[in-house]
Amino acid sequence: MIKKMTLSLVMGLSVMLGMTHAQAPEKNSDMLNFLLGELAVQRNDLEAAAGYLEKITNNQKIPYVLRQQFNLAYGQADYVKALSFLEQILEGEPNNIEVLLFESIIYARLNSYDKAADVMNKIAGLYQKEANDNGFHFLYRELKGQIDRKAFLDIYQKIAKINNYSAEVTPLLASLLVDNGYYGDAIHYLNDVILKDQNNAVNYSLLMYAYSLLNEPEKGLAILKSAAEKSAIAEVKVEYLQALITEFYFEDALTYANQLLQEYPNDSHIYGHLALLNFALGNNDLAKEYVEKVIQLKGHYVNVIFGLADFARTTGRFSDLYEILPNINVIDVQVVRLIAEADMALRKKSYATFLAIFDELRTKFPDRTEYLYNQQLDMLEKSYDYQLLLPYAEILDVVTNYELFVYTYYKSLAYQEMKQYDKMQELMLSWIQRNPEDALALNGYGYVMLELAKTPQDHQYAMTYLKKAIALAPDEPAIMDSIGWGYFQEKNYVEARKYLWPAFNRLKQPDVIAHYIALLIEEQKLKEAKSLFDRLKIVYPDHIETTKLMKRYQGILK
């Protein structure tokens, strides 16, 4: 919605500038000043451009010219001057939503939060009336990335207060509180708004997320379960089903989903969850039936298929997915089918077929080139074929102008597994030298060195990088897991819990779950460890992390 304000074609301005008939422009005419201003903009002589346009505005207030003056001031971060031009535009267009959006951004950047809140509240009302939609959602979508995160939260708190913490605005305030780490406050507001609107499933979803971030997922589950039992709304019950899946209770989720199916036999969301659950638990034929049912009911089958693909990628079961996917003429579905076919070829070591399929995909879908390279790299990593992984990681690194750490990581991983440790370190340290505050890069290097450490000095060297990473990104679960695992290896289980527990609650990946199970065992919380391991083993029976846990604690995890 927010676009740069620009002038229309010069020819369209003649009437506004008073040129009602063809005539040679005089030295100081508005048309001449406008043309000279445009030329100055093209030469990037912004000071001269502003001067020419100012001469026009002195004679008459032309909205297009004011917009161009605004562009110049805004682009130079002269927010006071930019605001003055917006105010002049708003004199003739008081309900122009795009202009008001810019006004609210400028007030925020000038730290005038009360004024920003008043303008945003006006926008919400105008948009709701114009589009018959939640205007507060519109604000959230349009402005979240335009205004400093903390400032946006302060302003939204004012907006929520203006509207007496209504059910329309409060969930968005709660979302911003979560973004800023105020999980308890978010839960307080969500509980209040749920009392006002007990059938809004989105509120329960956000509540569950906040409880997980607060490391109290069981409280969230209990609230969602109670809400699902009381509600007659399918979406609320499905939200509890999703929470069971997110918290890794796959068998309980399957039982509950089958019960819901009896009550709501035509709900495509339930069939979508059943497709994932049955695929995860190895019931591929049933999973296929449920995917077909989602399509029949005109549900969001593309989302379902991508959910299956994500799970298949994590578990290394992409080839199992091929028979489940419908052969329908939808680009995204066809892409996933062909990727699954490529994975089958790779597992059979049919490298020519594997490469040919991806070449065909990139030819047919050039707009998905980077995505396809990413899938190819991920498959090669999981197949342990590092001789192929290295050149493809290099290709994508070149294609993206060496701007993304992930491809440096893939290359480093290949060197590591081929025991070319010097090259691995050289690559990673070179990236870190260029990007010293890249928390994920520091984490990647620190974790690799942690795994390679042979001596206490090696371990402390790795931890140095992980401590830098966690200082830069204290809420990033992957980094929490890495440094927590480092403390675990030191047998410092108190510090390990500070990081592994929240990492587990935020990132239900096999390695993170395995690290937390190991901690539970060392803390002698064997009942909890065995229960969690049983859930891990059901969903990831052949995963390397499951195997490593079985081997390490074979006397405990029977």
TrEMBL record:
Entry keywords, A to Z: Signal
Coiled-coil positions: none
Keyword check for Signal: yes
Pfam families in the cross-refs: TPR_19
Signal peptide: 1-24
InterPro entries in the cross-refs: TPR-like_helical_dom_sf (IPR011990)
SUPFAM superfamilies, per the entry: TPR-like
Superkingdom, natural source: Bacteria
Keyword Signal tagged: yes
Protein known as: Tetratricopeptide repeat protein
